[in-house]
Design brief:
about 500 residues; alpha/beta; Rossmann fold; Helicase, Ruva Protein, domain 3; 4 domains; 5-stranded parallel sheet; about 45% helix
Length: about 500
């Protein structure tokens, strides 16, 4: 953090728009004579302890804690507050949530507590006597409220708030958070934003829509592996997983957290064009290379030069075209269609598939040498069935974004949990999208309708053929699928009827 001359420090939390908006209101109430910094519950005791241990005169005389929970390392927090008090630094805690149990006596007399049974922004207004109504629109998602109450720049401010949070989570950049509070407080219009701020918002608009959510073991393990492999900017990554599990999200995270994050991220689905067009899409063409080639074009490798190229459904690539990809991976050079000069490029390649690539190699449908080139680091995106405990986190994150920061009710979450999501996270989001579009509040009804809509969609070929599979394993799988669909895709009920465990049913599904 930079050395500053302001005597006021505003410490606020991360993750909620209300934090930075409330910080902006305090910043305005203090006539801009303050510094703003985001801090987590875990980091707060350590942060204040570092301030209290400094031998020089305190940088700030007054510290305002906005909505930050005091639950992290209470003893360290109490010791830091006591030392700051001896240095004549006042600390004020403003919150719309009560102090964690057991802290009242420990922190008594060490900080000024301003608790209000209202929103954090309203608590700030009552504490400082500032009109917070101009800040209210920044807490309401687009599409809610009276459109006349919104300025033409409101969407830009929403993007800026999200950008500041995104930059902290992914790049540990705290400066944009303070800038956001300052812009909100002073009503700085988007046309007057600094170039680096505009660039950050553009970067977020492109890359910020996909982040891995969840606290389960499989997700935290995947996040850890992403963080480790992202730092090695030349290592190729092969992502395996079912459809709808977020393979492109993982690819974007690898790019976003890598040294290449300021360079392009280009995504391409290998099954989207015919084999005759793949060479042109990969490498581009020269003017006159073929009929209608009226100008030179750049292919995917040049578009992604310096950044990351993500090739989805790599298992669908025709074997006749695989040699072209292998050639550029071996030498880092290629020629445009119709070209005569080699072009050098620096691209990190990330690929993904839901196919069994080793089986394709054995069947002669995928080149083994290409497979070895792509399979440097292998990551697997887990199915939603493997981390059902993350459904509340994923669902509430989506719901808050489109429903004015509201969380789902317990019975709504319970209804979402009573399903195994063969379509994975994509299917969960579709259900929430349907609930929003239909304004459906009864999630039990919503899920019943969803199960009816999708009954029988699996195992369609076997059912139509009217034949029992020859292999015992396939026959068991078909029978379990039929029972599962018969009982409304209720995993527990299907297991009871079949007389087996839930894990057995899940295995065959």
């Amino acid at each position: 953090m930079n050395v500053v001359k302001n005597e006021n420090l505003i410490l606020t939390g991360w993750g909620y728009a209300e934090y930075v908006v409330s910080a902006a209101a305090v910043y305005k109430a203090l006539d801009s004579r303050a510094d703003v910094c985001g801090v987590s519950r875990r980091r707060l005791p350590e942060f204040l302890s570092e301030l209290s241990e400094e031998r020089s005169a305190p940088k700030w005389k007054r510290i305002y804690l906005l909505g930050v929970s005091l639950g992290g390392a209470p003893d360290v927090l109490a010791d830091a507050l006591a030392k700051l008090k001896t240095k004549k630094v006042s600390v004020t805690w403003i919150s719309a949530l009560e102090m964690p149990e057991g802290l009242h006596e420990l922190l008594k007399g060490l900080l000024d507590v301003r608790f209000f049974d209202s929103s954090l922004l309203e608590a700030v207004g009552q504490t400082f006597g500032v009109d917070v109504r101009p800040f209210m629109p920044f807490l309401k998602p687009m599409g809610t409220g009276n459109p006349r109450d919104r300025s033409p720049d409101i969407r830009e401010y929403f993007s800026l708030i999200a950008t500041a949070q995104f930059y902290y989570r992914n790049y540990q950049d705290e400066s944009l958070y303070a800038t956001t509070a300052r812009y909100l407080a002073n009503g700085v219009r988007p046309c007057a934003w600094e170039a680096n701020v505009k660039g950050a918002v553009e970067h977020y608009d492109r890359y910020g829509g996909r982040e891995l959510l969840g606290k389960s073991r499989v997700i935290t393990t995947l996040q850890d592996r992403i963080n480790r492999v992202a730092a090695h900017e030349h290592a190729r990554v092969l992502i395996l997983g079912e459809s709808g599990t977020g393979k492109e999200t993982v690819a974007q995270q690898i790019h976003t957290k890598s040294p290449r994050w300021k360079m392009p991220f280009v995504s391409f689905n290998c099954a989207s064009v015919t084999k005759d067009l793949l060479e042109d899409r990969f490498f581009g063409h020269e003017r006159g290379a073929f009929t209608n080639a009226v100008e030179r074009t750049d292919g995917l490798f040049l578009q992604a030069d310096g950044g990351t190229l993500f090739l989805d459904e790599i298992g669908e690539m025709p074997i006749e075209v695989q040699s072209l990809l292998l050639r550029v991976l071996e030498g880092g050079r290629f020629m445009r269609v119709g070209g005569r000069e080699e072009i050098k490029c620096d691209v990190r390649l990330v690929t993904a598939t839901n196919r069994d690539l080793p089986a394709l190699v054995r069947d002669g449908k995928f080149r083994e040498d290409l497979y070895q080139r792509l399979n440097v680091v292998q990551l697997r995106t887990p199915s939603l069935r493997e981390h059902m405990e993350d459904i509340p986190v994923i669902a509430n994150a989506w719901w808050r974004k489109f429903h004015n920061n509201r969380l789902l009710r317990e019975e709504q979450v319970a209804a979402l949990m009573d399903y195994d999501y063969p379509g994975n996270v994509r299917e969960l989001v579709n259900i929430l999208d349907r609930a929003t579009a239909l304004e459906e509040d009864d999630f039990a009804l919503l899920m019943r309708e969803h199960k009816e809509m999708n009954a029988g969609r699996m195992g369609g070929l076997e059912l139509k053929s009217g034949r029992v599979p020859d292999k015992l394993e396939d026959a068991i799988r078909l029978h379990i699928r039929r029972i599962y669909e018969k009982y409304g895709q209720n995993l527990t009920r299907a297991a009871e009827v079949l007389g087996v465990s839930r894990n057995t049913v899940r295995k065959y599904l």
